[in-house]
């Protein structure tokens, strides 16, 4: 027989769950999707939860914290790893493979994969008014991997002359494009030691570069220095931290020409370090066929 104490306990449990249940659910809701399995089954693109810090205003360079979750990172790495090949260098007019300037591995990522399309949509929404709907494109994502000694020497991501879109070859349309901006996202950094595998911008200056070491943020500024440092040869070097990304604008807004101050390098990964990252290069189109 059920005792009065059991009935009381049961009623209390029901009442408490009815009261606290919705509160607990609403607290968990933003995190539930990122806890789903990495197989892709049942994955639904969650709303973003990144935060941003403006590093430089001119050119615009923004540090993005937690652009992707660890589930998203590992799924992208798993997806792209079997596709990796020696990296081409496309910025200088030809797609030379095996260049000594860029010794990493890379792979285009299929845009129809649910993780890739989710991150591209996130990137596109981050870009806001930089892309014109119906004309411009977010482009194809690229996975890159660096192992011992691999690097990408100083370069720009923009093309010195806009390129013709290969996809137009069959239609006779002649659309010219350039990479208006870059989102460079670190997905994995295994055994990547301090001072190695960084992304270095020799001309980057902090907004608050006024000769003093710290910004107005005080302790907050100290905290942020975990993510980047002043490089001994000038500019700023950003550490490879999984989930975090760099966003910068490659082209001058007025005439669409490339901004030389966006020069950057992927510094060598040393020892048994492995850095895996993702490039997103949104395209703006020019010319009468755009
Ligand atoms: O590896 C890096 O830190 C930068 C890579 C890069 O600049 C590129 O792939 O275009
Ligand atoms: Fe680059």
UniProtKB/TrEMBL annotation:
<dbReference type="GO" id="GO:0031418">
    <property type="term" value="F:L-ascorbic acid binding"/>
</dbReference>
<feature type="domain" description="Fe2OG dioxygenase">
    <location>
        <begin position="137"/>
        <end position="284"/>
    </location>
</feature>
<keyword id="KW-0408">Iron</keyword>
<dbReference type="GO" id="GO:0004656">
    <property type="term" value="F:procollagen-proline 4-dioxygenase activity"/>
</dbReference>
<dbReference type="InterPro" id="IPR045054">
    <property type="entry name" value="P4HA-like"/>
</dbReference>
<dbReference type="GO" id="GO:0005506">
    <property type="term" value="F:iron ion binding"/>
</dbReference>
<keyword id="KW-0223">Dioxygenase</keyword>
<protein>
    <recommendedName>
        <fullName>Fe2OG dioxygenase domain-containing protein</fullName>
    </recommendedName>
</protein>
<dbReference type="InterPro" id="IPR006620">
    <property type="entry name" value="Pro_4_hyd_alph"/>
</dbReference>
<dbReference type="Pfam" id="PF13640">
    <property type="entry name" value="2OG-FeII_Oxy_3"/>
</dbReference>
<keyword id="KW-0479">Metal-binding</keyword>
<dbReference type="GO" id="GO:0005783">
    <property type="term" value="C:endoplasmic reticulum"/>
</dbReference>
<keyword id="KW-0560">Oxidoreductase</keyword>
<dbReference type="InterPro" id="IPR044862">
    <property type="entry name" value="Pro_4_hyd_alph_FE2OG_OXY"/>
</dbReference>
<dbReference type="InterPro" id="IPR005123">
    <property type="entry name" value="Oxoglu/Fe-dep_dioxygenase_dom"/>
</dbReference>
């Amino acid at each position: 027989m059920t005792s009065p104490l059991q009935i009381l306990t049961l009623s209390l449990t029901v009442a408490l769950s009815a009261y606290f249940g919705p509160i607990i659910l609403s607290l968990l809701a933003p995190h539930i999707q990122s806890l789903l399995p990495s197989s892709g089954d049942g994955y639904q693109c969650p709303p973003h939860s990144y935060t941003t810090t403006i590093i430089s205003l001119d050119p615009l360079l923004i540090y993005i914290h937690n652009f992707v979750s660890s589930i998203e990172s590992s799924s992208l790495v798993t997806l792209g790893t079997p596709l990796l090949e020696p990296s081409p260098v496309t910025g200088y007019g030809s797609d030379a493979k095996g260049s000594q300037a860029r010794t990493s591995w890379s792979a285009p990522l299929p845009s129809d994969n649910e993780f890739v399309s989710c991150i591209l949509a996130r990137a596109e929404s981050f870009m806001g008014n930089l892309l014109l709907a119906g004309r411009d494109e977010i482009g194809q994502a690229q996975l890159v991997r660096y192992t011992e000694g691999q690097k990408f020497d100083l370069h720009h991501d923009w093309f010195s002359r806009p390129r013709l879109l290969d996809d137009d070859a069959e239609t006779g349309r002649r659309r010219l494009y350039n990479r208006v901006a870059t989102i460079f996202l670190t997905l994995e950094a295994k055994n990547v030691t301090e001072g190695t595998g960084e992304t270095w911008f020799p001309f980057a200056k902090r907004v608050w570069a006024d000769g003093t070491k710290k910004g107005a943020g005080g302790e907050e500024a100290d905290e942020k220095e975990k993510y980047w440092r002043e490089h001994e040869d000038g500019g700023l070097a950003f550490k490879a931290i999984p989930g975090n990304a760099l966003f910068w604008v490659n082209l001058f807004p007025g005439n669409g020409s490339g901004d030389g101050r966006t020069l950057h390098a992927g510094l060598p990964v040393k020892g048994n370090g492995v850095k895996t990252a993702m490039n997103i290069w949104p395209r703006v189109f020019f010319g009468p066929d755009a």
